[in-house]
Amino acid sequence: MAQQIALKLAVAEDRHGAVLRHPAMAAATLREQHHLVSIYYDTGRMALRRAGILLRLRKHGASWQQTVKRQEESQGGLTQRPEWQAPYLNHFDFSGVDDAELRDWLQRDKIAGRLAAVFETNFRRTLWQLDPGPNTRLLVKLDRGWVASSGRRDSISELELQLVTGDIGSLYALALELAQHLALPPLLLSKGERGYRLFLNTPSGPVKAGAVAIDATDTPLAAFRLIAQDCLSHLQLNHDGAARSDDPEYVHQMRVATRRLRAALRMFRPVLPAGFAEQLVPPMRELMVALGQARDLDVLMAEIVAPVADALPDEPRLTDLAGAITNRLYAARANIRQVLRQPGYGRLLLTAGSLLQRAPFIEPPAASDTAPSLLQFADHRLRRLLKKILELADAASVDYPPSLHALRIGIKRLRYAIEFFDPMLPGKSGTATIKRLAGLQEELGQLNDLASAGTLLMVCAGHDPHLREAVTLVGGWHGPRHAALLDDIPNKLKLIRGLKLPRLGAASD
Question: What is the pTM for the complete model shown?
């Protein structure tokens, strides 16, 4: 059995030449080119996929090689998985798989006897061998071609850095060197996963954040690592949609991912290594600004202007205002695509991945009697967040919109924090609190959208009196709803003052 450790990166098809000419490649001790054809197999009911197993035949010259891999989940493009290779002699032979349980499972008649081809990959690979330091050897693989199944096809354009000898840090060091002038964001979907999606005709769509599998026995640092990796995956899984599609939900989900990561950095600040957040927050700002500008315009159009235009379909001033907003929205989306194509985006993700693969995250300090448990840490931090919200509620005033905006941000941070810790909360106590916080955040968010819409609408209208009249129409139409939301603020403040944190077991005793 071999353990494959590799970092996969996406590379634009028009940037292959820049990879080939990169100075790092000039130091290669070996360079080869191969044309690789691979066929992937599974049963009709996708038993291998459901078990997290990949079975592949790859052509080498006139012969074929069989490979069995465990389909481990990618962590920011980094995969670590065992694989077993053997010559293919006109039949599958799993006798060389030294994992007895897996070998016996593969040899069962309902698996081995029902295997059929499900998809194919066909690509040209340029391979370099690099020896950047003592006892360190890396393989760099630049692949360009396609994956196909069931009459559907998708392109392959990726760079894989594989560790032969040395430590994982050397992979990230090379990746960051290459990413200084090349856009190389981590690639989360393997060729195998993309092939299955083609075979099953799985529609693409925005990806929402899921539950993070933390446990009360984890240390705070271990919990942060899992949460941060989930935020980075959430961000990257929506990258292609934001870069290629006009569906605003991709941008929204990328924005949520960056906000969750920022909230996690704040939440775990007391236990993070010195300088950790400072390496991530500055490069996040450009991305957050670009995402925020597009999202604000999406909300302005969909929730502020569109309802008025639907109610007054014969009003040409509204049509013209909508056109002016749309022009700005297209420009904001183009700016996002430009930001995502820049090297800085890939460097941000690679820097985060590199930091999370170092001590103290993978080699936490020895436990001591004074070190807080995750439950104790979570209880302390949640109480601080709740205390801050109560202070903001006391300071909130319907006559000062920024105070309500600050309260909404405080509620959002507490909601994210409880979502992070929800897997270790008893029963459905976390879910109930999250639902209540989400409701409060939503209503305060509507109020903030209405309060800030006027300024953004005037920016879109410019000095055109025709468009400024349309802004007045929009403001008047939303006036009653804005007044009703303001009238309800005292009730919301009362609910906030009555908020209770979900019980965290022994930590609350």
Answer: 0.92
